[in-house]
Design goal:
CATH architecture of the largest domain: 3-Layer(aba) Sandwich
Radius of gyration: 21 Å
CATH topology of the largest domain: Aspartate Aminotransferase, domain 2
Strand order of the largest sheet: 4-12-11-10-7-5-6
Shape: globular
Strand content: 15-25%
Helix content: 25-40%
CATH class of the largest domain: Alpha Beta
Largest sheet: 7 strands, mixed
């Protein structure tokens, strides 16, 4: 008999009733150190008092009115994002998947408005994850996500990850855009080198194609800059943001230049819930906190400390780990062949530690950006005990 909750997830036998910073607490009071942060969502930790206050204050005033009316909280957040980014304009969504849908539409609408409707092809890259909608799975193209769902949305061409020469050869008169994650999250914490991101920007400039960056997982301070592309010194034309921007409240956004967005006129896109007062009140507080240079400096300092600890873990367990990947507090332990990240996740449960598996045989480490030095040290100890126990079980 099918469960009342559709069984599309292989859920862990854990249920949490409370969160405190970097910790989650079960009904019996057991405390788990959270290195997943809701898959990079709880950027400021669980039950952050500043976010609780922002949400509570807004909840006592107004929850929802729809985008038929002006929404002051939405305007405030849009102004903050524009002030701290390349963008001229912002559209708010409820999720990263919805942001991906709009980014795709925006790129194609851009060329249609220029009387070049044949420019519909969007170049994407192997290992990508842009969401679960039909458009997003067509963009990623992996068999795991598309099998069984019938005809896919046309107009996508997948290239090998980071293959700049393939991108150079593929860009043609029908190319609308190039879409890429500066760091693949689901794909295994694979970091695109700064030089490659600059090269893609150059290819787009030369061809007129738009550059779309998916920073749903790697944005909002996760890498030690507000947005990951800032490390490369380039700017996109369109960018998707979600996860951390709401600090746990469902919120996403598409940021764009005026040129890229100018064809998106009244009626060309919409959302009933997107950018509602509750979400934007929380998102504005998140953005104010994370965009502070002092906060980002702390992320970088703590990232260096965590990286040092994890490199020691890799050295201590050469039978399990090949190396360490990532940037900022978006880190990945690359496991050796024969070691499944899911087994390490399970071993972590025994140590009351939470982490997240990813593709390319990688274990994701995505703690709240507010994790403390002591919690980093404790996380390393628990990871070490989990790794030791897994090695012992394997003989």
């Amino acid at each position: 008999m099918i469960p009342t909750v559709l069984p599309t997830y292989n859920r862990a036998p854990l249920a949490f009733v409370r969160g405190e910073g970097s910790w989650l607490v079960t009904g019996d009071g057991s405390r788990y150190l959270d290195l997943g942060a809701g898959i990079a969502v709880n950027a400021l930790g669980h039950a952050n008092p500043d976010l609780v206050a922002a949400l509570g204050e807004q909840a006592g005033r107004l929850w929802h009115v729809s985008n038929l009316y002006q929404i002051p909280e939405q305007q405030r957040l849009a102004d903050l994002l524009v002030a701290h980014s390349f963008a001229d304009t912002v559209f708010f969504t409820n999720s990263g998947t919805e942001a991906a849908e709009l980014a795709i539409k925006m790129a194609r609408k851009y060329w249609s408005a220029k009387s070049q409707p044949e420019r519909i092809v969007i170049l994407t890259f192997e290992g990508a994850f842009h969401g679960r909608s039909t458009g997003a799975i067509a963009a990623a193209g992996s068999e795991k996500m598309v099998k069984g769902y019938g005809p896919l949305m046309p107009g996508f061409s997948q290239l090998s990850w980071g293959d700049i020469e393939a991108a150079r050869a593929a860009i043609g008169p029908d190319t609308a855009a190039v879409m890429i994650e500066p760091i693949q999250g689901e794909g295994g914490i694979r970091v695109l080198p700064d030089a490659d991101l600059r090269a893609l920007r150059g290819l787009c400039d030369a061809s007129g194609a738009l550059l779309i960056l998916d920073e749903v997982q790697c944005g909002m301070g996760r890498t030690g800059r507000l947005f990951a592309h800032e490390w490369a010194g380039i700017t996109p034309d369109i960018m998707m943001v979600a996860k951390g921007i709401g600090g746990g409240f469902p919120l996403g956004a598409v940021l764009a230049t005026e040129a890229a967005a100018q064809a998106m006129t009244a009626g060309s896109h919409g959302s009933t819930y997107g950018g509602n007062p509750l979400a934007c009140a929380v998102g504005a507080k998140v953005t104010e906190i994370i965009a502070d240079p002092a906060f980002l400096a702390e992320v970088n300092r703590k990232a260096g400390l965590f990286r040092q600890r994890l490199e020691g873990l890799v050295a201590a367990h050469p039978d399990l780990f090949e190396g360490l990947r990532g940037q900022g507090l978006m880190l990945g332990l690359k496991c050796r062949e024969g070691t499944a990240p899911a087994d390490l996740v399970a071993a972590g449960y025994a140590e009351h530690l939470l982490s997240v598996p990813a593709a390319d045989n990688t274990l994701r480490i995505l703690p709240p950006l507010t994790i403390t030095d002591d919690e980093i040290a404790e996380a390393a100890r628990r990871l070490d005990r989990a790794a030791t126990a897994l090695s012992a079980r394997r003989g």
